[in-house]
């Protein structure tokens, strides 16, 4: 059972009415907590000592007394470390759990946990059946059918149309009464919500409106229960006319949605996200998890909500899909008033799409006008500015404190009242007037003008912005190889899945030595994972030769490592990270060594020994999967899409750790920053890397720098990118420009 989200905010008798949709949101004093399901709370209560108190779900605050503010038509990037509550905040917004979000506001959300939520809903028979029916639809139809607003209009229209097709003249009357009743039930929900939120005169008015809606609902129920024979001819005539007018209005609304254009738009979006034409007719339920998420992303993009929420939309896209989505969202920013809130670990993607940044840190929300690069640059400048101001003031304070001590000492010794008065005056200045030396406008601070409140007697202390305490990642050095030679060597490798089919890989030649950095990029379906499995020895080539160093230790991080860990967690609900690692190493490392290894990757304390694997976040699962790869100090790391599920802070830490690894690295990734940093060894000026990052510049003074090469796998062959990631990216941008329709 999923955790329960509790959201509260500032509620006053001046609270806005909840009867109009809004693209703008302004909610003060927002607090969001997550409570464990009641069943788990009861289980945990059994382990405690007996008492009179009943078992209650334990709530953990993720956001406290924050200000949620969204402006219409603005594209926001939401950033924060894994586990700070980004996804929970987005879910609370989408489910209208935040009281300040009007109920009629249309919010469309793509979230990585959607598939888990769908599985959890299987307990409800009606919804489970509807879900199964939807999943049997072809991909194109499924993408179109997920717009709830369009479905609601179409459902009402079809319901009324069928009533007119009936030979019974009473059917339109019954149908319009049923639709009215459903509408009044919605009004009752909103009236109850308003009555609970308001107090004073507005609260009295809201309670009167609630009674009025309750009376309407009672009358509507009586009309629904009325026998056909009791309905007089005049009522039949009037309500049949109302039903006809309502049907005509619904048909006009439906036609205004441009159904034909929507189908064309859906097809275009699906093709842009990587679907082939023949895949559009396949049933949705036959797709793999990654392709399902792409289809769900397409279904969100074709909708016309007030607010669109995208949580890690690039996780299952190749670089072509990422570049296409970048261009699509940039066009949307210029041509529509949709408000978008986006979470992504891809720095280049966030920089390209987002105009403003929302920072979730220390349970608060802060805002910055500009993209992620501009925010990080401003943060560093602010840290330098306030740091220098504080250093100067600390020197001044130390000097004044010494002067005060000396004046008191001399004054008492000589009975000099002037010295004592001077000491008292300087002490008062130390107590009341030291702190921030500039006003909010940037000018010199004046106590009588700029003091924050009448009840305050001194200005604020200088607060130097601090880097968040991030997860540091350290990788062990590779084992000693003992004698030289290539770690792996692929010579003339071809691979076919079936003898009669075309080869997936053709004439692949690849040699790697200690210290080499090789990156492989390419579109989905180009054979990258197949090539990686050949290197890892999981499959064998159809033709050609794969040679390995006789003492080679290889660490292979598979693309589906997280799914494997989740499956293990479901099989054994009590399995912890420490327990799993103990099984993997089979006595080669003791508990202390295992804890040290997991700690070096950011998994510490009770997280590894007490928290089951099934309760770990995506980022924590990535670190655990990496621990399973590096525990025996491999010479070669083969990493297939390792950045999925990581926040960009952790991606930075991982890039820095990989840069110092003395073994070889074969990296498959669509993350441009990761390939530039780890493979090309470029210290990205726009994104801060750790101080211990070792790139190509640090190797320039060495006698034999690392071999660094970026390949693109295209049409089954490896092609060297002499200009690295930038060359591949430029070719994709040209391709995307042809895929997108011309702007009118």
TrEMBL record:
InterPro entries: AAA+_ATPase, ABC_tran_Xtn, ABC_transporter-like_ATP-bd, ABC_transporter-like_CS, ABCF, P-loop_NTPase
GO MF term list: hydrolase activity
Membrane topology summary: Multi-pass membrane protein
Keywords on record: ATP-binding, Coiled coil, Hydrolase, Nucleotide-binding, Repeat
Positions of the ABC transporter domain: 47-387, 488-712
Gene3D superfamilies reported in the protein's UniProt record: P-loop containing nucleotide triphosphate hydrolases
PANTHER family, sorted: ATP-BINDING TRANSPORT PROTEIN-RELATED (PTHR19211), ATPASE, PUTATIVE (AFU_ORTHOLOGUE AFUA_1G16440)-RELATED (PTHR19211:SF135)
Record protein name field: P-loop containing nucleoside triphosphate hydrolase protein
Organism: Aspergillus pseudoustus
């Amino acid at each position: 059972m999923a955790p329960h989200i509790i959201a509260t905010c500032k509620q006053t008798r001046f609270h806005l009415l909840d009867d109009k949709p809004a693209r703008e949101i302004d909610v003060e004093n927002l607090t969001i907590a997550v409570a464990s399901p009641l069943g788990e709370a009861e289980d945990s209560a059994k382990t405690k000592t007996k008492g009179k108190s009943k078992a209650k779900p334990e709530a953990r605050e993720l956001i406290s007394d924050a200000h949620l503010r969204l402006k219409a038509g603005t594209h926001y990037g939401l950033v924060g470390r894994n586990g700070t509550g980004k996804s929970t905040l987005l879910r609370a917004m989408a489910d209208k759990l935040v009281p300040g979000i009007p109920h009629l506001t249309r919010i469309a959300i793509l979230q990585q946990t959607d598939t888990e939520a769908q599985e959890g809903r299987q307990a409800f028979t009606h919804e489970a059946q509807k879900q199964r029916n939807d999943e049997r639809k072809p991909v194109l139809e499924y993408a179109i059918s997920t717009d709830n607003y369009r479905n609601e209009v179409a459902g009402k229209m079809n319901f009324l149309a069928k009533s007119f097709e009936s030979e019974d003249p009473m059917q339109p009357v019954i149908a319009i009464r049923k639709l009215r009743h459903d509408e009044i039930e919605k009004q009752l929900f909103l009236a109850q919500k308003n009555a609970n939120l308001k107090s004073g005169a507005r609260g009295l008015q809201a309670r009167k409106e609630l009674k009025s809606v309750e009376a309407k609902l009672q009358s509507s129920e009586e009309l629904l229960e009325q026998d056909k024979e009791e309905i007089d001819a005049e009522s039949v005539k009037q309500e049949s006319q109302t039903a006809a007018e309502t049907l005509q209005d619904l048909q006009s609304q439906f036609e205004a949605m441009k159904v034909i254009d929507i189908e064309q738009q859906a097809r275009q979006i699906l093709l842009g996200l990587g679907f082939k034409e023949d895949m559009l007719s396949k049933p949705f339920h036959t797709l793999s998890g990654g392709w399902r998420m792409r289809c769900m992303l397409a279904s969100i993009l074709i909708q016309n909500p007030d607010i669109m929420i995208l949580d890690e939309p690039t996780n299952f896209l190749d670089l072509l899909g990422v570049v296409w989505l970048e261009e699509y969202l940039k066009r949307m920013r210029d041509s529509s008033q949709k408000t978008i809130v986006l979470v992504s670990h891809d720095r280049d993607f966030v920089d390209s799409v987002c105009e403003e940044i929302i920072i979730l840190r220390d349970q608060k929300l802060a805002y910055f006008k500009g993209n992620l690069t501009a925010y990080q640059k401003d943060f560093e400048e602010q840290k330098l500015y306030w740091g220098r101001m504080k250093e100067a003031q600390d020197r001044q304070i130390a000097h004044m404190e010494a002067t005060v001590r000396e004046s008191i000492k001399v004054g008492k010794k000589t009975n000099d009242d002037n010295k004592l008065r001077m000491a008292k005056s300087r002490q008062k200045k130390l107590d009341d007037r030291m702190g921030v030396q500039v006003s909010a406008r940037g000018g010199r601070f004046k106590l009588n003008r700029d003091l924050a409140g009448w009840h305050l007697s001194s200005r604020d202390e200088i607060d130097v912005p601090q880097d968040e305490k991030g997860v540091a990642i350290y990788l062990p050095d590779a084992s000693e190889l003992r004698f030289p030679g290539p770690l792996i060597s692929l010579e003339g490798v071809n691979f076919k899945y079936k003898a009669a089919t075309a080869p997936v890989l053709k004439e692949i030649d690849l040699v790697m030595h200690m210290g080499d950095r090789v990156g492989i990029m390419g579109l989905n379906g180009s054979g990258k994972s197949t090539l990686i499995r050949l290197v890892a020895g999981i499959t064998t080539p159809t033709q050609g030769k794969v040679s390995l160093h006789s003492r080679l230790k290889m660490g292979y991080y598979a693309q589906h490592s997280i799914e494997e860990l989740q499956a293990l967690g479901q099989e054994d609900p009590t399995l912890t990270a420490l327990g799993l690692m103990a099984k993997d190493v089979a006595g080669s490392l003791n508990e202390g060594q295992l804890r040290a290894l997991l700690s070096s990757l950011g998994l510490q304390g009770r997280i590894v020994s007490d928290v089951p694997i099934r309760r770990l976040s995506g980022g924590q699962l990535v670190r655990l999967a990496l621990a399973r790869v590096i525990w025996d100090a491999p010479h070669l790391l083969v990493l297939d899409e390792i950045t999925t599920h990581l926040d960009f802070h952790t991606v930075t830490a991982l890039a820095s750790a990989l840069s110092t690894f003395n073994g070889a690295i074969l990296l498959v990734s669509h993350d441009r920053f990761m390939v530039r940093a780890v493979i090309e060894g470029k210290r990205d000026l726009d994104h801060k890397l750790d101080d211990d990052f070792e790139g190509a510049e640090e190797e320039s003074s060495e006698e034999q720098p690392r071999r660094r090469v970026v390949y693109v796998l295209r049409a089954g062959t490896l092609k060297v990118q002499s200009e690295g990631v930038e060359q591949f990216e430029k070719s994709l941008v040209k391709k995307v420009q042809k895929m997108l329709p011309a702007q009118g």
